[in-house]
Amino acid sequence: MNLVHLHRNSWVTRCIVKIDDYQQSQNADLSIHLTLLEYAEKWKTSEDPLPLLEVYTVAIQSYVKARPYLTSECENVALVLERLALSCVELLLCLPVELSDKQWEQFQTLVQVAHEKLMENGSCELHFLATLAQETGVWKNPVLCTILSQEPLDKDKVNEFLAFEGPILLDMRIKHLIKTNQLSQATALAKLCSDHPEIGTKGSFKQTYLVCLCTSSPNEKLIEEISEVDCKDALEMICNLESEGDEKSALVLCTAFLSRQLQQGDMYCAWELTLFWSKLQQRVEPSIQVYLERCRQLSLLTKTVYHIFFLIKVINSEVRITKLFFYINYL
Protein backbone atom coordinates (compact mmCIF):
# COMPACT_ATOMS: atom_id res chain seq x y z
CA MET A 1 0.00 0.00 0.00
CA ASN A 2 1.22 3.48 -0.88
CA LEU A 3 0.43 6.56 1.18
CA VAL A 4 0.44 10.03 -0.33
CA HIS A 5 0.70 12.86 2.21
CA LEU A 6 -0.68 16.20 1.12
CA HIS A 7 0.38 19.74 1.89
CA ARG A 8 2.50 19.64 5.03
CA ASN A 9 1.69 21.77 8.10
CA SER A 10 -1.99 22.18 7.15
CA TRP A 11 -5.34 20.51 7.58
CA VAL A 12 -4.63 18.54 4.43
CA THR A 13 -2.07 16.39 6.26
CA ARG A 14 -5.10 14.60 7.73
CA CYS A 15 -6.44 13.83 4.25
CA ILE A 16 -4.36 10.86 3.15
CA VAL A 17 -5.22 9.21 -0.12
CA LYS A 18 -4.87 5.45 0.06
CA ILE A 19 -4.04 3.47 -3.06
CA ASP A 20 -4.67 -0.23 -2.40
CA ASP A 21 -3.07 -3.00 -4.36
CA TYR A 22 -5.95 -3.23 -6.82
CA GLN A 23 -4.18 -5.91 -8.85
CA GLN A 24 -4.68 -8.30 -5.92
CA SER A 25 -8.23 -7.19 -5.11
CA GLN A 26 -10.52 -5.96 -7.85
CA ASN A 27 -13.31 -5.31 -5.37
CA ALA A 28 -11.57 -2.18 -4.07
CA ASP A 29 -12.64 -0.31 -0.99
CA LEU A 30 -13.50 3.24 -2.07
CA SER A 31 -14.69 4.49 1.32
CA ILE A 32 -11.43 6.38 1.90
CA HIS A 33 -12.20 8.60 -1.09
CA LEU A 34 -15.72 9.27 0.13
CA THR A 35 -14.25 10.18 3.53
CA LEU A 36 -11.80 12.45 1.75
CA LEU A 37 -14.67 14.33 0.10
CA GLU A 38 -16.52 14.65 3.41
CA TYR A 39 -13.44 16.25 5.00
CA ALA A 40 -12.91 18.45 1.95
CA GLU A 41 -16.46 19.81 2.10
CA LYS A 42 -15.67 21.24 5.56
CA TRP A 43 -12.62 23.13 4.38
CA LYS A 44 -13.00 26.93 4.39
CA THR A 45 -12.17 27.69 0.78
CA SER A 46 -12.52 31.43 1.30
CA GLU A 47 -9.47 31.39 3.59
CA ASP A 48 -7.09 29.11 1.71
CA PRO A 49 -8.48 27.23 -1.32
CA LEU A 50 -5.25 25.93 -2.87
CA PRO A 51 -4.65 23.05 -0.41
CA LEU A 52 -8.15 21.79 -1.18
CA LEU A 53 -7.43 21.94 -4.91
CA GLU A 54 -4.39 19.77 -4.22
CA VAL A 55 -6.59 17.29 -2.37
CA TYR A 56 -8.86 16.95 -5.37
CA THR A 57 -6.08 16.64 -7.93
CA VAL A 58 -4.22 13.98 -5.94
CA ALA A 59 -7.48 12.08 -5.45
CA ILE A 60 -8.06 12.17 -9.21
CA GLN A 61 -4.55 10.90 -9.83
CA SER A 62 -5.21 8.06 -7.40
CA TYR A 63 -8.25 7.01 -9.36
CA VAL A 64 -6.39 7.12 -12.65
CA LYS A 65 -3.85 4.64 -11.26
CA ALA A 66 -6.52 2.41 -9.79
CA ARG A 67 -9.17 2.54 -12.51
CA PRO A 68 -7.79 -0.24 -14.78
CA TYR A 69 -8.29 -2.73 -11.93
CA LEU A 70 -11.83 -1.67 -10.99
CA THR A 71 -14.61 -3.80 -12.47
CA SER A 72 -18.25 -2.93 -12.91
CA GLU A 73 -18.91 -4.79 -9.65
CA CYS A 74 -17.05 -2.14 -7.66
CA GLU A 75 -19.54 0.19 -6.03
CA ASN A 76 -19.34 3.97 -6.09
CA VAL A 77 -16.59 4.22 -8.71
CA ALA A 78 -18.49 6.45 -11.13
CA LEU A 79 -20.17 8.30 -8.24
CA VAL A 80 -16.90 9.27 -6.56
CA LEU A 81 -15.25 10.23 -9.83
CA GLU A 82 -18.17 12.47 -10.66
CA ARG A 83 -18.19 14.02 -7.19
CA LEU A 84 -14.47 14.68 -7.41
CA ALA A 85 -14.88 16.40 -10.77
CA LEU A 86 -17.87 18.47 -9.63
CA SER A 87 -16.15 19.51 -6.40
CA CYS A 88 -13.02 20.49 -8.29
CA VAL A 89 -14.98 22.61 -10.78
CA GLU A 90 -16.93 24.32 -7.98
CA LEU A 91 -13.70 25.18 -6.22
CA LEU A 92 -12.10 26.58 -9.38
CA LEU A 93 -15.16 28.72 -10.12
CA CYS A 94 -15.11 30.31 -6.67
CA LEU A 95 -11.38 31.01 -6.43
CA PRO A 96 -11.00 34.67 -5.37
CA VAL A 97 -7.97 35.02 -7.66
CA GLU A 98 -7.21 33.11 -10.85
CA LEU A 99 -4.38 30.58 -10.65
CA SER A 100 -1.02 31.79 -11.90
CA ASP A 101 -0.08 30.79 -15.45
CA LYS A 102 2.32 28.16 -14.12
CA GLN A 103 -0.25 26.70 -11.70
CA TRP A 104 -2.91 26.64 -14.41
CA GLU A 105 -0.60 24.92 -16.90
CA GLN A 106 0.23 22.25 -14.33
CA PHE A 107 -3.45 21.74 -13.61
CA GLN A 108 -4.25 21.56 -17.34
CA THR A 109 -1.65 18.87 -17.91
CA LEU A 110 -2.79 16.81 -14.93
CA VAL A 111 -6.47 16.88 -15.92
CA GLN A 112 -5.88 16.22 -19.59
CA VAL A 113 -3.64 13.22 -18.88
CA ALA A 114 -6.11 11.88 -16.31
CA HIS A 115 -9.06 12.31 -18.67
CA GLU A 116 -7.31 10.55 -21.53
CA LYS A 117 -6.34 7.57 -19.34
CA LEU A 118 -9.84 7.28 -17.89
CA MET A 119 -11.36 7.42 -21.37
CA GLU A 120 -9.26 4.38 -22.29
CA ASN A 121 -11.30 2.48 -19.70
CA GLY A 122 -14.60 3.97 -20.85
CA SER A 123 -14.87 6.50 -18.01
CA CYS A 124 -15.97 9.98 -19.08
CA GLU A 125 -16.76 11.49 -15.66
CA LEU A 126 -13.98 14.06 -16.04
CA HIS A 127 -15.30 15.36 -19.35
CA PHE A 128 -16.54 18.75 -18.13
CA LEU A 129 -13.48 19.24 -15.94
CA ALA A 130 -11.30 18.49 -18.96
CA THR A 131 -13.38 20.97 -20.97
CA LEU A 132 -12.71 23.69 -18.40
CA ALA A 133 -9.01 22.82 -18.41
CA GLN A 134 -8.79 23.58 -22.13
CA GLU A 135 -9.37 27.28 -21.43
CA THR A 136 -6.64 29.79 -20.65
CA GLY A 137 -8.25 30.34 -17.25
CA VAL A 138 -11.46 29.64 -15.36
CA TRP A 139 -13.11 32.95 -16.28
CA LYS A 140 -10.80 34.10 -19.09
CA ASN A 141 -12.64 32.86 -22.19
CA PRO A 142 -13.08 35.99 -24.37
CA VAL A 143 -16.64 35.06 -25.40
CA LEU A 144 -17.62 34.46 -21.77
CA CYS A 145 -16.08 37.80 -20.77
CA THR A 146 -18.12 39.52 -23.49
CA ILE A 147 -21.32 37.85 -22.27
CA LEU A 148 -20.76 38.78 -18.64
CA SER A 149 -19.84 42.36 -19.49
CA GLN A 150 -23.06 42.47 -21.57
CA GLU A 151 -21.32 43.86 -24.62
CA PRO A 152 -22.53 43.29 -28.22
CA LEU A 153 -22.28 39.58 -29.06
CA ASP A 154 -21.31 37.55 -32.09
CA LYS A 155 -24.12 34.98 -32.23
CA ASP A 156 -22.04 32.30 -33.95
CA LYS A 157 -19.20 32.62 -31.43
CA VAL A 158 -21.66 32.54 -28.54
CA ASN A 159 -23.35 29.38 -29.84
CA GLU A 160 -19.95 27.77 -30.38
CA PHE A 161 -18.89 28.64 -26.82
CA LEU A 162 -22.13 27.32 -25.28
CA ALA A 163 -21.92 24.06 -27.22
CA PHE A 164 -18.26 23.65 -26.20
CA GLU A 165 -18.88 24.18 -22.48
CA GLY A 166 -22.01 22.03 -22.25
CA PRO A 167 -24.98 22.26 -19.86
CA ILE A 168 -23.26 21.00 -16.68
CA LEU A 169 -20.43 23.53 -16.69
CA LEU A 170 -22.69 26.39 -17.80
CA ASP A 171 -25.19 25.60 -15.04
CA MET A 172 -22.41 25.64 -12.45
CA ARG A 173 -21.20 29.01 -13.74
CA ILE A 174 -24.69 30.50 -13.46
CA LYS A 175 -25.23 29.14 -9.95
CA HIS A 176 -21.91 30.60 -8.86
CA LEU A 177 -22.84 34.01 -10.30
CA ILE A 178 -26.18 33.91 -8.47
CA LYS A 179 -24.50 32.83 -5.22
CA THR A 180 -22.09 35.76 -5.45
CA ASN A 181 -24.94 38.22 -6.17
CA GLN A 182 -23.87 38.86 -9.77
CA LEU A 183 -27.48 38.72 -10.92
CA SER A 184 -27.16 40.74 -14.11
CA GLN A 185 -24.32 38.50 -15.33
CA ALA A 186 -26.21 35.34 -14.30
CA THR A 187 -29.32 36.59 -16.08
CA ALA A 188 -27.42 37.30 -19.29
CA LEU A 189 -25.79 33.85 -19.37
CA ALA A 190 -28.97 32.01 -18.36
CA LYS A 191 -30.92 33.78 -21.11
CA LEU A 192 -28.44 32.71 -23.80
CA CYS A 193 -28.45 29.12 -22.51
CA SER A 194 -32.25 29.07 -22.42
CA ASP A 195 -32.49 30.29 -26.02
CA HIS A 196 -29.87 27.88 -27.37
CA PRO A 197 -31.59 25.13 -29.44
CA GLU A 198 -29.60 22.29 -27.83
CA ILE A 199 -28.37 23.58 -24.47
CA GLY A 200 -31.82 24.95 -23.62
CA THR A 201 -33.33 21.45 -23.73
CA LYS A 202 -30.70 19.83 -21.49
CA GLY A 203 -31.04 21.81 -18.29
CA SER A 204 -33.28 24.08 -16.23
CA PHE A 205 -31.96 27.28 -17.79
CA LYS A 206 -35.41 28.74 -18.50
CA GLN A 207 -36.49 28.50 -14.87
CA THR A 208 -33.12 29.86 -13.73
CA TYR A 209 -33.48 32.79 -16.11
CA LEU A 210 -36.98 33.55 -14.83
CA VAL A 211 -35.82 33.31 -11.20
CA CYS A 212 -33.04 35.80 -11.99
CA LEU A 213 -35.55 38.21 -13.53
CA CYS A 214 -37.94 37.84 -10.59
CA THR A 215 -35.17 38.35 -8.05
CA SER A 216 -33.83 41.45 -9.78
CA SER A 217 -37.20 43.24 -9.37
CA PRO A 218 -40.37 43.28 -11.45
CA ASN A 219 -39.96 44.92 -14.83
CA GLU A 220 -41.35 44.89 -18.34
CA LYS A 221 -38.91 42.16 -19.41
CA LEU A 222 -40.16 39.87 -16.65
CA ILE A 223 -43.79 40.45 -17.62
CA GLU A 224 -42.92 39.73 -21.25
CA GLU A 225 -41.04 36.52 -20.44
CA ILE A 226 -43.58 34.96 -18.07
CA SER A 227 -46.44 35.80 -20.44
CA GLU A 228 -44.98 33.23 -22.84
CA VAL A 229 -44.79 30.42 -20.27
CA ASP A 230 -47.68 28.00 -19.75
CA CYS A 231 -48.77 27.70 -16.11
CA LYS A 232 -48.30 23.92 -16.14
CA ASP A 233 -44.69 24.44 -17.19
CA ALA A 234 -44.39 27.07 -14.45
CA LEU A 235 -45.70 24.59 -11.87
CA GLU A 236 -43.11 22.06 -13.02
CA MET A 237 -40.34 24.65 -12.60
CA ILE A 238 -41.61 25.50 -9.12
CA CYS A 239 -41.72 21.80 -8.16
CA ASN A 240 -38.18 21.32 -9.48
CA LEU A 241 -36.85 24.20 -7.41
CA GLU A 242 -38.65 22.92 -4.31
CA SER A 243 -37.30 19.39 -4.78
CA GLU A 244 -33.79 20.87 -5.07
CA GLY A 245 -34.28 22.57 -1.71
CA ASP A 246 -34.35 26.07 -3.21
CA GLU A 247 -37.63 27.15 -1.63
CA LYS A 248 -36.85 30.86 -1.83
CA SER A 249 -36.46 30.74 -5.61
CA ALA A 250 -39.55 28.55 -5.86
CA LEU A 251 -41.51 31.17 -3.91
CA VAL A 252 -40.20 34.02 -6.06
CA LEU A 253 -41.22 32.22 -9.25
CA CYS A 254 -44.57 31.11 -7.87
CA THR A 255 -45.39 34.65 -6.74
CA ALA A 256 -44.63 36.01 -10.21
CA PHE A 257 -46.90 33.53 -12.00
CA LEU A 258 -49.68 33.76 -9.43
CA SER A 259 -49.59 37.57 -9.67
CA ARG A 260 -49.91 37.28 -13.45
CA GLN A 261 -52.98 35.05 -13.18
CA LEU A 262 -54.59 37.33 -10.60
CA GLN A 263 -54.00 40.47 -12.65
CA GLN A 264 -55.38 38.85 -15.78
CA GLY A 265 -58.34 37.31 -13.99
CA ASP A 266 -57.25 33.96 -15.38
CA MET A 267 -58.50 30.84 -13.58
CA TYR A 268 -56.10 28.47 -15.39
CA CYS A 269 -53.98 26.73 -12.72
CA ALA A 270 -54.83 29.58 -10.33
CA TRP A 271 -55.80 27.26 -7.47
CA GLU A 272 -52.65 25.14 -7.83
CA LEU A 273 -50.49 28.27 -7.87
CA THR A 274 -52.31 29.69 -4.84
CA LEU A 275 -51.85 26.45 -2.90
CA PHE A 276 -48.15 26.21 -3.79
CA TRP A 277 -47.62 29.87 -2.98
CA SER A 278 -49.27 29.49 0.44
CA LYS A 279 -47.14 26.51 1.45
CA LEU A 280 -43.90 28.08 0.21
CA GLN A 281 -44.65 31.43 1.84
CA GLN A 282 -45.22 29.75 5.19
CA ARG A 283 -41.93 27.84 4.92
CA VAL A 284 -39.79 30.76 3.81
CA GLU A 285 -41.36 33.31 6.20
CA PRO A 286 -43.17 31.46 9.03
CA SER A 287 -44.60 34.66 10.57
CA ILE A 288 -48.43 34.75 10.46
CA GLN A 289 -48.38 38.55 10.28
CA VAL A 290 -46.10 38.47 7.22
CA TYR A 291 -48.26 35.74 5.65
CA LEU A 292 -51.45 37.75 6.08
CA GLU A 293 -49.81 40.87 4.68
CA ARG A 294 -48.61 38.97 1.61
CA CYS A 295 -52.15 37.64 1.13
CA ARG A 296 -53.52 41.16 1.39
CA GLN A 297 -51.07 42.35 -1.26
CA LEU A 298 -52.13 39.55 -3.59
CA SER A 299 -55.81 40.30 -2.95
CA LEU A 300 -55.29 43.81 -4.33
CA LEU A 301 -54.32 42.25 -7.67
CA THR A 302 -57.41 40.06 -8.00
CA LYS A 303 -59.99 40.66 -10.74
CA THR A 304 -62.50 37.95 -9.81
CA VAL A 305 -64.22 36.84 -6.61
CA TYR A 306 -63.00 33.28 -7.25
CA HIS A 307 -59.41 34.31 -6.65
CA ILE A 308 -60.47 35.92 -3.36
CA PHE A 309 -62.11 32.63 -2.37
CA PHE A 310 -58.87 30.79 -3.17
CA LEU A 311 -56.94 33.10 -0.86
CA ILE A 312 -59.53 32.69 1.92
CA LYS A 313 -59.34 28.90 1.54
CA VAL A 314 -55.56 28.73 1.98
CA ILE A 315 -55.67 31.20 4.85
CA ASN A 316 -58.28 29.02 6.53
CA SER A 317 -55.86 26.09 6.44
CA GLU A 318 -52.93 28.13 7.79
CA VAL A 319 -54.46 30.55 10.30
CA ARG A 320 -56.72 30.12 13.30
CA ILE A 321 -60.38 30.76 12.59
CA THR A 322 -60.56 33.92 14.72
CA LYS A 323 -57.77 35.45 12.68
CA LEU A 324 -59.52 34.35 9.49
CA PHE A 325 -62.64 36.37 10.38
CA PHE A 326 -60.43 39.35 11.10
CA TYR A 327 -58.69 38.93 7.77
CA ILE A 328 -61.96 38.69 5.78
CA ASN A 329 -63.07 41.96 7.35
CA TYR A 330 -59.61 43.37 6.57
CA LEU A 331 -60.06 42.51 2.89
Describe the structure.
With 331 residues, the chain is an all-alpha fold. The chain folds into 3 domains: 1-133; 141-228, no CATH class; 230-331. It is built from 16 helices and 2 strands. It has a two-stranded antiparallel sheet. It starts with a strand and ends with a helix. It is found in: Nucleus. Pfam families: TPR_Rlf. InterPro entries: GH-ZnFinger_Regulators, TPR_Rlf/292/654. GO terms for molecular function: DNA binding; DNA-binding transcription factor activity, RNA polymerase II-specific; zinc ion binding. Residues 225-324 form the Zinc finger protein Rlf/292/654 TPR repeats domain.
Helical content stands at 55-70%
Biggest sheet strand line-up: 1-2
Written as H for each helix and E for each strand, in order along the chain, the element string is EEHHHHHHHHHHHHHHHH
**How would you sum up the global shape?**
elongated
**How large is the count of helical segments?**
16
Largest sheet: 2 strands, antiparallel
- Compute the CA-based radius of gyration: 25 Å
What is the mean predicted local confidence, pLDDT?
Answer: 82
Question: How many separate domains make up the residues?
Answer: 3
Q: List low-confidence stretches.
A: 1-30
What class would the helix/strand composition place it in?
mainly alpha
Would you report the number of β strands? 2
Distance between the termini: 74 Å
